[in-house]
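Annotators were shown the component list below and the corresponding predicted structure, then asked to write short factual statements about the assembly.
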Amino acid sequence: MSEVNDKAWRDPVDLTPIGVVRGGRETSDDDYWGGFESRIELDPQRFTDDALAALDTFSHVLIVYHFHPLNPASEESGGRHPRGRDDWPLVGIFAQRAKRRPNRIGVTICRVLSVDGPVLSVEGLDAMEGTPVLDLKPHMREFEPRGEVFQPQWSHEVMANYYSESP
Amino acid sequence: MSEVNDKAWRDPVDLTPIGVVRGGRETSDDDYWGGFESRIELDPQRFTDDALAALDTFSHVLIVYHFHPLNPASEESGGRHPRGRDDWPLVGIFAQRAKRRPNRIGVTICRVLSVDGPVLSVEGLDAMEGTPVLDLKPHMREFEPRGEVFQPQWSHEVMANYYSESP
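Structure shown to annotators:
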């Protein structure tokens, strides 16, 4: 089996967006996503309205998306200073949430505002207008971190205004 | 801008795995992932050891992966009963975590056990041996759900043994 796996795991993974972000920002911003409302519209060519059925019986949804093409395309393959700030430590690309990352995937847990047929309205989605969406999953307490949670101080500083309301 | 977006958002998204799950299970199981330990090995052709630097200063990591090819390939585009159980309600594919989902993406938050060069050891990764990994992100408190969290009763029942220790 490992021989099969060794051959297979590097194969390209070809995905098709399930929908698109509407009402998103027109620019890429690092901060002030607090209270921001937008919508995800499913591709009507692929899904029935049933695809979102009962999602509004959950308070939150996990959204997997692909960064908007207007975001920087270069990829980091080692370490960097978060947001280019030398006073924060040099950390690996997989130890930060920077956009210049391999595969350009974003994952955000948002509050569900409403479901209306093929349209999901959410609060707190940090994605630009026209962003392709790859998956939606209901948030369940059972998938939250198990055991003690900790993180370094610089990461709190990076996030200080991320979910603040716009000033 | 919306004209550009309308053209672009349905474009295929072509990804390249960043690494692979080793020490994973050889079969796909619905339950008993509690305490299960496995590793993610980064692709040494693409990344320096710096790519994981400082990830072990976080307690948890969010892992984005693509379901193993041995998992069922058929896709649900509407609703279904979770795990085929008629006593649970019919809910949309995006209101459940079923494997038969578009794009076959898994997202799991795991405890970081250690980082050793290009190898990340974790606890609680519900992925099979040889699963392609698409991204790793440090877990930050600031990305946890904001506001009241709730979910329907059936979802607690589905998850009852998911993170139990093996019986």
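Statements collected:
1. Confidence is low (pLDDT under 50) at residues 1-5 of chain A.
2. The longest helix of chain A spans residues 2-8.
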